[in-house]
Specification:
The complex is a heterodimer of chains A (about 350) and B (about 270). Chain A is an alpha/beta fold. Chain A has helices spanning about 10-20, 45-60, 75-80, 95-100, 175-190, 195-205, 215-225, 235-240, 275-285, 285-295, 310-315, 320, 330-350; strands at about 35-40, 65-70, 90-95, 135-145, 170, 210-215, 230-235, 250, 255-265, 300, 325. The termini of chain A are far apart. Helix content of chain A is about 40%, strand content about 15%. Chain A is built from 13 helices and eleven strands. In chain A, the strands form two sheets. In chain A, strands 3, 4, 5, 6, 7, 8, 9, 10 and 11 form a nine-stranded mixed β-sheet that branches. Chain A folds into two domains: about 35-135 and about 260-325, 3-Layer(aba) Sandwich (D-Maltodextrin-Binding Protein, domain 2), CATH 3.40.190; about 140-255 and about 330-350, Periplasmic binding protein-like II (D-Maltodextrin-Binding Protein, domain 2, 3-Layer(aba) Sandwich). The two termini of chain B are about 40 Å apart. Chain B has two domains: about 1-50, no CATH class; about 50-265, Orthogonal Bundle (MetI-like fold). Chain B is mainly α and about 270 residues long. In chain B, helix 3 runs antiparallel to helix 8. Chain B contains twelve helices and no strands. The radius of gyration of chain B is 23 Å and the shape is globular. Classes of the chains: A alpha/beta (about 350), B mainly alpha (about 270). The interface of A and B includes residues 19, 66, 67 and 220 of A.
Chain lengths: ~350, ~270
């Protein structure tokens, strides 16, 4: 029998060496190269952003971009001094941007003087419902099964159809912005408008039994596996399966689709303001917009983007199409979030 | 030869079988999902594929994260076993005032939600202006790994017969020699058991890592969480299967090199 040549002593010494190496720390960043710190989603988005877009930006502007993909961004930004923020550019959803702007952690508005591509955007991308700029958007409507003999849903009210009892899906409202927007939409459908919470609560009660998910990824899988037959979902969550022969489709309700914006903004205390402006301008440029839109099926904010025919027919890239986008008032919602969370939790638990 | 049916034994076996199934079925589901061609969990499986493993192993993001997690876990094992074992010895032998209180203090990182520990450490590092170095991540993981080593080592020290050490000393062994050749081998099962827990706690650590990882230096659980939000497919299951195999390999490796049989006696 051969004996293991690695003695215990040698093994422990080797491990000690590894421990010592840990104290060396992170690889040295080129001292002269400016570094832009930003945030980025994971998945396919992160793959294309980090694999294609950021290297092109780094090459063009001779800089290094550090992308933080580890949630949560907002408390991390909150924990750092305003004059030395953790991020120079914050990319996140509209709800979180509004939380940040209220605390002075990001700019309320960006200037077309500094970011020239802002002049080429659809109006919704810089509307009063947006702080910073919405570079991309998805349309929230319904994802539904096409193999269950269902007709295409035409109205948001179709979700309440008794035939979907237990086979309809939405989101855990306290943690998911799609669920929050859907709640506001219920106020508009059954009450006086997006801010009619009493009507929204009543309508939510009528949707029971309903399956709730925390991420859109969960809803996608629930639809694919027929755990639900219909669910609140953004168009990109369905179109990404285009050509994969899956029995699911997207339906845009006649009352309009909710706008799920991808918002970029700059932190007031950044020492890299010029580079931050250039980065956002780069993201808004037609070529980059086209690359990212076609990778993940997001709709571009820049009017000059020319998408491929398949994308062009489905995404929201004309004035007529973007007129269907409904934006919600996140500042208003955030101010009431705690009360809303408590109320909807009671409703859905009971 | 006929054997009499033993009802109590049958119940005993059934209960054990149920517990084993309860523990292992989630792992089986993960492996089935990893080998299933559909991009969602489907039962029964519609086929067998290795495409999710290919996706996992060819993704630079997953691979970098896997190696960083492994590297951090190995360093955490070393630090936590050294610190945990020393603390246990001090508490059990040091005649320190309030040993129970000290034990509670050392175990307190387990009582605090890890997400708060992560946030607190993040704020501390930011206030100190050190940023988020890899050693910061290691410190965070070590903080929650030490209590496991402390607990398991204290358990061994509880039944430790000190006369063995006294005999060695009376025979002329120096204190250092007594420690390395008598004490350490005897407490080794507890230390190693704690080390294994430390490895698993670090390798699977998410809440603390969320705050302490750096861009382009994310651990596997963090990368998986980000991935799952946008692309919930079999690559996640493949990653989980690899994690399970890796954790199992670490245990087997430790058994081969250091010997875990003694641990069984615990």
């Amino acid at each position: 029998m051969t004996k293991c040549k690695l003695s215990r002593r040698k093994f422990l010494k080797a491990l000690g060496g590894v421990a010592a190496a840990a104290t060396i720390g992170t690889p040295a960043v080129h001292a002269q190269t400016p570094v832009l710190k930003t945030t980025a989603w994971g998945g396919k988005w992160g793959e294309v952003l980090k694999g294609q877009v950021i290297p092109a930006f780094e090459k063009q502007f001779k800089c290094k971009v550090e992308t933080d993909s580890a949630f949560p961004y907002y408390p991390k930004l909150q924990s750092t001094p305003k004059n030395a923020p953790l991020y120079d550019v914050l990319h996140t959803n509209t709800s979180e941007q509004w939380q940040a702007v209220v605390e002075g952690l990001v700019e309320p508005k960006l200037s077309a003087k500094d970011i020239p591509n802002l002049a080429d955007l659809y109006a919704y991308a810089t509307s009063d419902k947006i702080c910073g700029v919405s570079a991309f958007t998805s349309a929230i409507g319904f994802g539904y099964r096409t193999d269950k003999g269902l007709s295409e849903p035409k109205s948001w009210k179709d979700l309440a159809d008794p035939k979907f009892a237990g086979a309809r899906g939405s989101y855990i409202i306290p943690v998911n912005s799609l669920g929050q927007m859907h709640l506001m939409m219920l106020g508009k459908l059954y009450g006086k408008g997006l801010t009619d919470l009493d009507a929204a609560y009543k309508a939510l009660e009528q949707l029971k039994p309903i399956k709730m998910y925390d991420f859109t990824g969960g809803m996608e899988k629930a639809l694919l596996s027929a755990e639900v037959n219909i669910g609140v979902l953004h168009d990109s969550g369905i179109y990404r399966y285009d050509g994969q022969n899956q029995p699911v489709a997207f339906a845009a309700p006649s009352e309009g689709v909710l706008s799920l914006e991808q918002v970029w903004n700059i932190t007031p205390g950044t020492k890299m303001r010029e580079l931050a402006n250039q980065y956002i301008n780069f993201i808004l440029s037609p070529d980059v917009q086209k690359t990212l839109c076609e990778a993940v099926w997001y709709s571009p904010s820049n009017k000059k983007v020319k998408l491929g025919p398949n994308y062009d027919s489905k995404l929201y890239n004309t004035e007529a199409k973007v007129a269907q986008l409904i934006q919600v008032d996140w500042k208003w919602y955030n101010e009431r979030k705690d009360d809303i969370d408590a109320r909807v939790t009671r409703i859905l638990r009971g | 030869m006929s054997q009499r049916f033993d009802g109590a034994y049958a119940v005993y076996l059934t209960l054990n079988g149920a517990i084993v199934a309860f523990l292992l079925l989630p792992i089986a589901v993960v492996i089935v999902f990893a080998l299933n061609p559909t991009p969602y969990i489907a039962f029964p499986p519609v086929g067998v594929t290795l495409r999710w493993f290919v996706k996992f192993f060819t993704s630079p993001e997953f691979m970098n994260a896997l190696w960083l997690s492994f590297y951090v876990a190995v360093v955490v094992v070393i630090l936590s076993t050294v610190i945990g074992a020393m603390c246990a010895l001090a508490i059990a032998r040091g005649n320190l005032p309030g040993p129970r209180l000290l034990t509670t203090v050392f175990l307190s990182p387990l009582m605090l939600p890890a997400i708060l520990t992560g946030l607190a450490l993040f704020q501390l590092f930011m206030l100190a202006g050190v940023g988020r170095p890899v050693w910061g991540l290691i410190v965070g993981h070590t903080l929650v790994a030490v209590p496991y080593v402390l607990r398991t080592t204290l358990a061994v020290l509880q039944d430790f017969d000190r006369r063995v050490e006294e005999a060695a000393a009376m025979l002329g062994a120096s204190p250092a020699r007594v420690f390395f050749e008598v004490t350490l081998p005897l407490i080794r099962p507890g230390v190693i058991a704690g080390g294994i827990f430390a490895f698993i706690v670090s390798f699977d650590q998410l809440p603390i890592s969320l705050f302490l990882v750096v861009p382009s230096g994310e651990t596997l659980p963090v990368v998986l969480l980000n991935y799952i939000r946008f692309d919930l497919d079999g690559a996640i299951a493949a990653a989980s299967t690899v994690s399970i195999v890796l954790a199992l390999s670490a245990v087997v490796l430790l058994e081969r090199i250091i010997g875990l049989r003694a641990y069984v006696r615990l």
